[in-house]
Amino acid sequence: MKNVKDKIIMSAAVGFTAASGITPVFAQETTNAEVIKEDVEAKKTKKEKLEDSVKNAQENLDSAKATAKESKAGVDEAKDTLDEVTVAQENQQEVVGSAYNTASDAINADLQPILDEISSLESQINDSKKKLEEQTAKNEQASKDLEEAQKSLETKKAELKTLQDKLAGMKSSEYLNSDYTKTNEDASKAQEIVNKAQADADTAKANLEAAQSDLTTKENTLNQARTDYENATNDVTAKQVAVNAAQATLDALSDSNGLDKAKADLATAQTELQTAQQNQTNAENALTAANTAYETAKQAKDTAESNLTKAQNDLTTAQTKLDEAKTYEQTAKDSLNTAKADQQKNEDEINVLKTKINTAQGEVDKAQKDYDNALKVYNSTLTPLEQAQKNLSDYETAHATELARLSQGSKGYFDSIGVSKIVDPVFDKNNPNTAKAELATHTQMGQKNDATSLENMQASIAYMKECNDLRKKHNLSELKVSMWLMAVAQVNANNARDYFGHAEVYYTAENLAWGWSDAYTDYSPYRGWYDQEKKEYDSGNHKFSETGHYQNIVEKGFTVTGFGVETAGGLSTAHCQEFLDGTITDDTVMTVSEFETSFNNYYNNLKDVDAQHKALQNAVKNASGSGSKDNTAVTNALNLLNAKKDALTSLQNQQTDRKNARAGLKALVNQATASYNQAVQNTEKANQKVEDAKTTKVNAENALSNAKAELTAKETALQKASSNVDSAKAKTEEVESKVNALKDRINNWTENTDKAKEDLQKAKVALAKAKTRKAQLKEVYDKAIDEHKKSSEAVEAATASSNSANDKLASAKNELDTKLALRDAAKDALDAYNLTVDSVHALNEDIVVLDSTIKSKETEKSKSSERIAALKVDIEKAIKDKAKLEGETVPFKEAQKVLNNVLSEGSKADTSSITDEKLLGYLNVLGKEVDKLHEIDVELNDAKEEYAHKLSLYNQALVNQAKAQATYDDAMNALDKYIEDTAKHVVKQNSETVKKANATTVSGTNTGVETGLGLDAAMMGVAALGIVEAKRRSKKQ
Question: Exposed, middle or buried: residue 305 (CB in 10 Å: 0-12, 13-18, 19+)?
Answer without folding.
Answer: middle
